[in-house]
Amino acid sequence: MANDLSAYFLTNHERHLNELSEWLSIPSISSLSAHKKDTVKGAEWIVRELKRIGMEKVEVYPTQGHPVVYAERLHAKEKPTVLVYGHYDVQPVDPLHLWESDPFKPAIRDNKIYARGATDDKGQTFMHLKVVEALLKEHGELPVNIKFLIEGEEEIGSINLPEFVEKNQELLFTDVIVISDTGMQEKGQPALCYGLRGLAGLQIDVKGAKGDLHSGQFGGAVQNALHALVHLLDSFRNEDGVIQVERFYDKVKDLEDEEKKVHDSLQFSDKELKKELEVNDLAGEKGFSTLERMWVRPTLEINGMWGGYQGEGLKTVLPNEAHAKITCRLVPDQDPDEIIRLLTAHIEAHTPAGVTVAVTVYDKGAPYVAPYDHPAIQAAGRSYEKIYDVPVQYIRRGGTIPIVAEFDQILKKPVVLMGFGLPGENFHAPNEHFHLENFDYGLRVITDYLQELPKALEKSNDLTQKL
Amino acid sequence: MANDLSAYFLTNHERHLNELSEWLSIPSISSLSAHKKDTVKGAEWIVRELKRIGMEKVEVYPTQGHPVVYAERLHAKEKPTVLVYGHYDVQPVDPLHLWESDPFKPAIRDNKIYARGATDDKGQTFMHLKVVEALLKEHGELPVNIKFLIEGEEEIGSINLPEFVEKNQELLFTDVIVISDTGMQEKGQPALCYGLRGLAGLQIDVKGAKGDLHSGQFGGAVQNALHALVHLLDSFRNEDGVIQVERFYDKVKDLEDEEKKVHDSLQFSDKELKKELEVNDLAGEKGFSTLERMWVRPTLEINGMWGGYQGEGLKTVLPNEAHAKITCRLVPDQDPDEIIRLLTAHIEAHTPAGVTVAVTVYDKGAPYVAPYDHPAIQAAGRSYEKIYDVPVQYIRRGGTIPIVAEFDQILKKPVVLMGFGLPGENFHAPNEHFHLENFDYGLRVITDYLQELPKALEKSNDLTQKL
Fold it and tell me: Has the keyword tRNA processing been applied to this entry (chains A, B) (predicted)?
């Protein structure tokens, strides 16, 4: 492999980690307004870095929310263009006491880097910058044209990005979109993700009497907001884990036999998962395998719930307020707006007497399934196989990258989900980390892919035009 | 009314309120260990005050928890003995932001004193001390023998008091027990409470996977602790508000026709209650009137519930922990220990697969119904009528004073629930307050009662002996 930059990456390993740690130290939590300035800092850091490595037209585009960062380098004449998408925002860190080290003081333990955003998604986005830097330093120029689009609202549903993409189709014109924000199934086993679930999220606020009441004085006579909420939330799923929201499954496509075979080939082990998560039983929709429940079936999960007295001991209060946050993961061809309408109708129909309920709509994102036989995707598979030296797996993921479906609809180009995360890396949870083994392999996979892509697309010019 | 001390009480009104404010300023919250020292301060304050007004043998008895304060003055030879019970501990104050003034900086607005404990129970207990002080100052001696028993654990189920009462039966020997810790139905309408509900409370802790999980990655495959809790909590009551815990109602006595007539005579208005609480509908067990649901039917209420993400916006987490606090109000002849066993069995039977549940037992208290035709109770009714100048109502209350049933069982003497609170005074809730009008009337009612009691008991000596 003449064009392999392994030696370069090894030499620069420590510098890379120091730079990444700097970025990971910025608490750019997009959902919390108290961190508004930090998200700007997160954007500024990546802007400085993009300029430093040799990207051009590096610009910050303000939005209604957190800014979008764009950069390009278009000197590879008659070569394909690759749009790399990533995000500089991260999830909140609570419960903080469960972190073994400060989420914003990156720590390396056992060849893993621990920090909020280590794998989702600063760590994975950062690899693409390092590959560009390496190629420019070692080869003087890039083998393809590259555009970067790095946003700050992925964790809150990419609220403003679709409008930006819609308005800037020319700026973002590309042959392929590459995103590293997913993962593989197990260590040493590379995987290319060709499908993601969508998302529809909302908050439910229940209000009863004018204030909290004494549970002895009024208990039995007045609706308790917590009981009303519990009843409402329990009405969403039945004992078999089947979602009871009317027409919820109407648009869900049946799994094709071919994909079932792919699932079978993965030899997924329920036993292993139970062991990993330390549970006695798995749960979920009856009649579907665990992989199906995680990848190709829609879900409804309560993400948070609270009300009444939460302190030490008891307080004999009859609470007048109760709150819950729920999200649904969606699969083709469910439409997030329609699902929000169905959920709202269900809530209205199941609100007990004596309380009022308000619904606030949050994140939305459509599901996405890529044509995994597309040459740009197949080329990615070959790069994985070359570097990891094992056959690549084609998988779907249960998570959501809200902008993926929008890219598909607006830019009409294939999205290559070239992820390097691992299942136990605590995405969105305490002690998020990224295996440095995959950081090292990933740099080489991306390098190889950018070099091999022109050939792959040349051969299948027709197909590319069609998509 | 030669023995009326109205003039004295008027002269000393301001001093009384200043003294009460001092006591109310001590945050003696018994359920929170952070306030351990404050509960001791609450006890010390009342000890100093008991000594100052002329009580004797004033002593602090340590318990496993918060101390018990005892005092006596036994110079009324051949007169009955009255044991006054009260409590110096108070409920927690959250949600703090809903208080219009600091819960521990007593404020007088619109002839009401606002503070935690104003009505429950420092304000009401304090009246008895002021009556003793007044009688001693104005008459030189008390018309009856008086004992005070003031504890610091009423709000946490009087955990240690039964043992104290059991061990100190001689010290506490009395003819009648008087407690001012209840209320009347409406302003200007005195009421004597002859029945209280009991209490059984516990906390439920649900534990799922080893940690919080990503709701996209694992959603649909693993039991969400919040869903498990919601399912468990919703299983406690059916759509008609009937508690579904097996054998829960087995020991509940039917309401006697005579008492039904008393209820009817009270002309309770659902419409008024809805207006007062600002709700469109009342709720609760089908087939029972609102008064019945509040006074003579048992309940199961969720007092608090929490788990997962409770911050701004969404966090797409699949929480591995969920918690709830519940209490049941009990009626004769339900036994708190048995109810705890039934609840625990129900929880075990309804725990969904994939989670484990732990139960922590908190407060317990038996229900109590007094013989309201007892002369000590009838005498109290006459004192109310004399001072308020309207017929007294005989009512039951939905709340619990845990020690009342124990007094009944151990001391075998009637308990006179001579309350001066009002329904809207926010017992256990933000902006607790006490109407000073009832503070003023109350002092005179108690004064009259202590003077009239010897005659009343003399006449019905047989009956007293029998009880």
Answer: no
Tell me the pLDDT tens digit for each residue of A46-79.
999 999 999 999 999 999 999 999 999 999 999 9
Q: Which residues in chain B are closer than 8 Å to A215, comparing Cβ atoms?
A: 299, 301, 303, 327, 329, 428
Residue found by looking up tokens 């549903």 in the block: A157
CB pairs under 8 A between A and B: 348
In chain A, which among 159-218 make CB contacts under 8 A with chain B?
Answer: 197, 199, 201, 203, 208-218
CA-closest candidate to residue B285, choices A187, A222, A365: A222
And the tokens for B97? 């932001």
Element (H, E) at A69: strand A68-73
The interface predicted TM-score of the complex, written ipTM, equals 0.82
CB contact under 8 A, A283 and B223: yes
CA A153 – CA B454 distance, rounded (Å): 78
The 10s digit of each residue's pLDDT in B4-33 is: 899 999 999 999 999 999 999 999 999 999
List the domain boundaries for chain A.
6-196+367-466, 198-252+298-365
Q: What is the CATH number of domain A6-196+367-466?
A: 3.40.630.10
Q: Token pair for residue B244?
A: 């579904």
- Mutation target to probe the B interface, by most B beta carbons within 10 A, among A30, A39, A279, A293 is A279
pLDDT, one tens digit per residue, over B306-362 is 999 999 888 889 999 999 999 999 999 999 999 999 999 999 999 999 999 999 998
Q: Cβ distance B321 to A245 under 8 Å? A: no
A198-252+298-365 has which fold?
A: Alpha-Beta Plaits (3.30.70)
SS (H, E, C) B382-449: HHHHHHHCCCCEEEEECCCCCHHHHHHHHCCCCEEECCCECCCCCCCCCCCEEEHHHHHHHHHHHHHH
Contact in structure between B8 and B138 (CB atoms under 8 Å): yes
Chain A nearest CA to B466, separation (Å): 31
- Contact of A275 with chain B, judged by CB distance below 8 Å, is answered with no
For B95, other C-beta atoms within 10 Å of its C-beta total 15
Which of A209, A283, A428 faces B278 most closely, judged by CB atoms? A209
Nearest-by-Cβ selection for B210 from A278, A285, A318: A278
CB contact at 8 A, B181 and B120: yes
Residue of A nearest to B293 (CA): A220
pLDDT in tens, B132-164: 999 999 999 999 999 999 999 999 888 899 999
Query: Is B280 an 8 Å CB contact of chain A?
Result: yes
Q: What is the mean pLDDT of residues A299-324?
A: 94
Q: B88-131: per-residue pLDDT in tens?
A: 999 999 989 999 999 999 999 999 999 999 999 999 999 999 99
Q: Which residues of A touch B199 (CB under 8 A)?
A: 216, 316
Chain A contacts in chain B segment 77-96 (CB below 8 A): 91-92, 94-95
User: Do the Cβ atoms of B13 and B105 come closer than 8 Å?
Assistant: no
Kindly state the tokens that stand for A8: 């370069």
